[in-house]
Amino acid sequence: MTDPAVAHGFTSVDTQPRPGDWVQVLDRVGAEPFYAAYKQRLEELLRPVEGARLLEVGAGTGDAALALRSRWRAEVVAVDSSLTMIEQARARGLAHAVVADGHQLPFRTDYFDGVWADRVLQHVADPDRVLDELLRVLRPGGRIALADPDYDTQVLDIDDQDLARRVLRFRADVLLRNGTLAHHHAGLLAARGLDDITVEARTLIVRDPSAVDNVMGLRTWAHTAATHDHLTPEEANRFVSRFDEAVGAGRFTYAVTFFLTAGTKSSARRTGTTRVPMVSNPA
Ligand SMILES: C[S@@+](CC[C@H](N)C(=O)[O-])C[C@H]1O[C@@H](n2cnc3c(N)ncnc32)[C@H](O)[C@@H]1O
């Protein structure tokens, strides 16, 4: 179970000590070729057409929404629960940027031609409800596209695999609310009667932790785990030593797989919302 005391910053950006730091996190991640490439693919999976009416939930700084708007001359609305993020999105030129919670979207039913959420379901309190809301505001025949890493897929080559696994499990099960949900996205769409469901995987491989890891903070996860009594301080120190040795020896490898899941809302879909349980024990 997720420990609320360890809540990830993206669950509540505005209450973090320095909310602006999370804007920088998104900018640094966005500059990584891996992220740019999968985001491009996610956009394709949405199958935008010129002039389409599209919604991004958990849009962050709005960069993806802006790119999509200019490429497709689409009407793109961005929603985020963080005012800090929405102010950034507006400052970057996204006029239709709204502070709202994905659990309760302030839009008409069947309004959008396409909806997407990129690295958002992993952070929300009730992903079933957010998914129901995304599908409610999507018109029959419209497209939904979801992306998230699934931390059940992590591997890390350091010299103590038991310790590595414990730290990675902490990341998967405690540090994120829904860190292992992404491989269930297709099932969640199928249970809601969507058509044409596809799943694609993209694996992030980190060989130089000074690059992406400055953003992910992988080296710090063990000490975070120790702070919350999931490891002893000695184990956390050992993890950092093994981590640094692996980097020094040129053997360091970390990988995690992202799932890109898309589907089409059936034109013959039942009206009303069907609550479908997520998974019995996501942790
Ligand atoms: C990891 S960031 C991803 C941002 C953006 N989608 C991207 O790819 O750069 C997650 C975003 O989801 C937002 N978020 C978290 N919970 C939310 C919720 N319940 N409703 C709307 N947005 C939420 C956060 O404020 C944050 O901006």
Q: What is the CATH topology?
A: Rossmann fold
CATH architecture: 3-Layer(aba) Sandwich
Rg on CA atoms, Å: 19 Å
Q: What do we call the CATH homologous superfamily?
A: Vaccinia Virus protein VP39
User: What order do the helices and strands follow?
Assistant: HHEHEHEEHEHHEHHHE
Name every ligand kind in the structure: S-adenosylmethionine
Kindly name the structural category. Answer: alpha/beta
Beta-strand content bin: 15-25%
Low confidence ranges: 269-283
Query: What does the average pLDDT come to?
Result: 91
The first-level CATH class is given as: Alpha Beta
End-to-end distance? 5 Å
Count of helices?
Answer: 10
Characteristic key phrases:
22% strand; alpha/beta; binds S-adenosylmethionine; seven-stranded mixed β-sheet
Description:
- There is one protein chain.
- This protein has 283 residues and is α/β, with parallel strands linked by helices.
- The chain has one domain: Vaccinia Virus protein VP39 (Rossmann fold), CATH 3.40.50.150.
- Helix content is 36%, strand content 22%.
- The protein is built from 10 helices and 7 strands.
- It has a 7-stranded mixed beta sheet with strand order 3-2-1-4-5-7-6, with helices on both faces.
- Helix 3 links the parallel strand 1 and strand 2.
- The radius of gyration is 19 Å and the shape is globular.
- The C terminus is likely disordered.
- The structure holds S-adenosylmethionine (SAM).
